[in-house]
Amino acid sequence: MPPDASTRHGRPGPRTRRRASGRKRLLHAARHPDRLLRYVRRLTRDWRLLRASGGDHIAFYRAVMRSDVSKDANAAVGTPSQERWEAVGELQFSYLRSHGLLPTHHLLEIGCGNLRAGWRFIDYLAPGHYYGVDISPDILLAAQRVLAARGLQGKLPHLSLVEDMGLAHLPEGHFDMAHAHSVFSHSPLHVIDECLTHIPRVLKPGGFLDFTYNRTDDEEHHVLHEDFYYRPATLIALAENKGLTAAPMDDWDALPHRQCKIRVTAPPSPSP
Ligand SMILES: C[S@@+](CC[C@H](N)C(=O)[O-])C[C@H]1O[C@@H](n2cnc3c(N)ncnc32)[C@H](O)[C@@H]1O
Asked: What range(s) does the Methyltransferase type domain occupy (predicted)?
């Protein structure tokens, strides 16, 4: 996986990605032959994995994760250096804390990776209150190693392998908050649609899901089926069609992180 936006922390740059023209890309490639080589290697690998997955995005992305985790689990979630891994985890944790996360809450993390933020949530929440799901068995094994290294076994977090966004194994109306950082940025629209279809069932009334995404105000596109770029209006309309309230999180967007955030909130319980 290419370093996620998080690794460009400290170099804010524009939130909206514009696609470079072919000529500009060629010039850029000529100036950075090392990057070109990396890109060609990734292109070849991804083409092979895409063919082997028969076009199933989850199978493809699971294979990408397997390949990336075999080299370096921190890099597989987008932050090759330990320092950046810590910083991006802290950013996610302190954001949700500042938005009211309490130790008594139940938190669902979709695409929990190797617990970059997850270990902080687990440490903070009451035992058994953290649920992490991921499509990658390899990253979940790496997550267990992080859990053990941080001495958090006693917090009994739930770490589950999933094959889709159906969330079928999770109880109804259970979660105060859900969180998906740098997951929709790697997801085609039908995967996001599936998540937004099922998330209302597992949230408490008035509970919310925060997700980050790569924003474009131009044509929506993907790079190597790994990185997806969406207009905010597309994602907001998708959520509203499921009866969720959707809002861009301007305070997150003001932070030095390239991905933007949207919060989708489940309807409150009907008044008696
Ligand atoms: C860039 S990593 C981010 C991990 C974690 N959220 C973090 O910030 O450290 C993306 C993670 O999402 C997982 N993922 C991708 N698509 C998913 C899906 N449809 N359902 C659940 N997890 C998914 C990947 O396996 C990977 O662990």
From this structure: 108-209
